[in-house]
Amino acid sequence: MFNSKKYIKKINKYINKLDNENLNIEKNIEFTKKNINYKKQNLEKIEKEIENMELKYKKIRKMLIEKGITFNLEGDLNLEQWDNLFLEKKGKTYNIIDKNKNTIKNLDIEISKIIEELLRENVVYSILIIRKVGNNLLVQIRFTQ
Fold first, then answer.
1. Which of 23, 76, 102, 141 is the most buried (most CB within 10 A)?
2. What order of strands is seen across the sheet that includes strand 93-97?
3. In this entry, which stretches build a coiled coil (predicted)?
């Protein structure tokens, strides 16, 4: 009889241990499910943001191709109205150069990435000085497909 009580006590202790492990596993499963749901919601939010950014990028790209970029340059540049300018790649960025290969403007890396993508797609560019007033130049870059 003594051995059977001891055996039953041992079995009950083992059952309690298994119950505790089971409870911990269930809590872990519940925590993991909540974590998965949270990450799914974040993923959906990020996917929507990516979709919105891609849409904005396509709109900007379309506007760039349709309207080009116009900007001012200042300085004593030996250039005249209606002079053509050109692009030259230096490292990861593009420079605007004149017919004598003098650098007129260094483009930043973001603009350079977009220009490189357009050029890879065989989009043709034209850079023209459309106005000169004193030392101020109004330059326009146009793209055509």
1. 141
2. 69-74, 136-144, 124-133, 84-90, 93-97, 103-106
3. 8-63
Give me 115's structure tokens: 């220009």
Between CA 15 and CA 23 the distance in angstroms is 12
Among 69, 73, 109, 68, which Cα is nearest to 92's? 109
Q: Are 102 and 94 in contact (CB under 8 A)?
A: no
**Residue 141: CA count within 13 A, CB half-sphere:** 24
Q: Which residues of 45-65 are buried (b: 16+ CB within 10 A; e: fewer)?
A: eeeeeeeeeeeeeeeeeeebe
